[in-house]
Amino acid sequence: MAEKLKGNILVTGANRGIGLELVQQLAETTGRDAHIYACCRAPEGSGAQVRHFHALRDLTTQYPGKVTIMKLDVSDEDSISAAFQALNKQLGAGGLNLLINNAAINQPGSPGPLSATGKQDMMQVYETNVVGPFLIAKMFLPLLQRAAEMDSPQKEGDKMSCRRSAIINMSTLVSSIEKCPETFAQAQMYSYRASKAALNMVTRCQSEDFKRHNILVTAIHPGWVRTGMGGKEAPLSTQESVHGMLTMMSSLSDKDCGMLLDWQGNGIPW
Predict the structure, then answer these.
(1) 184 to each of 53, 113, 121, 160, how far by Cα in Å?
(2) In whole angstroms, what is the distance from residue 177 CA to residue 173 CA?
(3) pLDDT tens digit string along 137-170?
(4) For the chain, which domains are there?
(5) d(CA 123, CA 118)
(6) Considering only CA atoms, which of 72, 64, 16, 55 is closest in space to residue 36?
(7) What's the CA gap between 140 and 166, in Å, rounded?
(8) Contact 183, 202 (CB under 8 A)
């Protein structure tokens, strides 16, 4: 049976959907040695986001001392830098064991045909979905390195794991260039598809770059999930998706570095 995740875990886009469920289940299933940093663009909540923020804030009450809400706008380099400084201060001599780059946008909304997609859509989605995770990994690297150096592998041959030091980039089946002929008719989503395909390459590059630090970098497709982005017709609940992903994350090792896997651990072609 896979070991539970542990240590310091950071989740972006934590105020709703998959991100909120990740925080919920991580708080429920991890031991006393775990601490979850739930990051979102507007921690105080605004407009329609207030309800989601209340749900996140309730988790800090339900799990006192285990969940910390932090401000982090993945499309703002200064915000990423400020979040790094705040986290570094909170961790002290500790490191960051698991970074889950979950925050993402899709515009225009699905099905996102060519006729509805403009330059601004392409650029804003790329900035959030690709540049954001890239910069977060780059800036938070010292904290990930610190965690990797503090924790020795459980057994020979498994130098990397999500319990030691890892980056999980939330990707998607529709990022697969090979699978595009099968998935395109249902939702064109030019900007979203292109951004997640680019994120896959960032994942692949960083997996090679960070191997020398024993930091695992893997991309995961959460499935088609009933969220604001996924829609009401999606077959998976957030609970099912996140339970599957966390179970799978807890068993990832060296062989999974640089891969694109679905929420059940099956490989997806590039």
Answers:
(1) 34, 10, 18, 35
(2) 9
(3) 999 999 999 999 997 655 556 799 999 999 999 9
(4) 8-262 (3.40.50.720)
(5) 9
(6) 64
(7) 11
(8) no
| Cis peptide leading into residue 111 (ω within 30°) | yes
Radius of gyration of the chain (CA): 17
pTM: predicted TM-score of the whole model, two decimal places = 0.94
Place of tokens 């680019």: 198
Contacts of 163 (CB under 8 A, 6+ apart): 3, 5, 6, 7, 97, 98, 151, 250
Q: Give the confidence band of 116 by pLDDT, cuts at 50, 70, 90.
A: very high
Q: How far is the C-alpha of 88 from the C-alpha of 83, rounded, in Å? A: 8
Residue entry with tokens 């934590």: 14
Is residue 191 within 8 Å of residue 121, measured between CB atoms? yes
